[in-house]
Amino acid sequence: MTDTPPDHLSIDPSSPYFDQPPLERGIGIRFKGLERTDVEEYSISEGWIRVALGKKVDRRGRPLTIKLLGPVEAYFQRPAEGAEEGTTEA
After folding, report:
1. DSSP 33-66
2. Residues contacting 63, CB < 8 A, separation 6+
3. Exposed (0-12), middle (13-18) or buried (19+): which is 52, by Cβ within 10 Å?
4. How far is CA 12 from CA 23, 32, 81, 89, in A?
5. What is the pLDDT of residues 4-56, one digit of tens each?
6. Paired sense of beta strands 8-10 and 39-43, if any
7. Could you give the CA distance from residue 8 to residue 44 in angstroms, rounded to a whole number?
8. Which residues face 49 on adjacent strands?
9. How far is residue 16's CA from residue 22's CA, in Å, rounded to a whole number?
């Protein structure tokens, strides 16, 4: 596994952009310079995130989301399994 998070990732298992291994490592999102913990889906190349719209849900019980546009930075919160902590590549 690389140390670069996926360009497009979703936490919804029914989405084609759902990928379990990166989610298990933990993905941190920085949107417009602020840490966000409520991100449902993101795209770095397209510059957007989707966040839940309060406690509102659709008729299937999934949260309603809103797309916010701006610079997105994604990073892993934990190192890859088997990778040494504290080492950096030049």
Report:
1. TEEES-EEEEETTTTEEEEEEEEEE-TTSPEEEE
2. 40, 52, 53, 55, 56, 57
3. middle
4. 11, 23, 24, 33
5. 999 999 999 999 999 999 999 999 999 999 999 999 999 999 999 999 999 99
6. antiparallel
7. 7
8. 42, 68
9. 14
- Write out pLDDT tens, residues 49-64: 999 999 999 999 989 9
Place of tokens 């892993």: 76
Q: What is the model's pTM?
A: 0.81
What 16-21 contacts at long range (C-beta under 8 Å, 24+ apart), as own/partner pairs, is 17/41
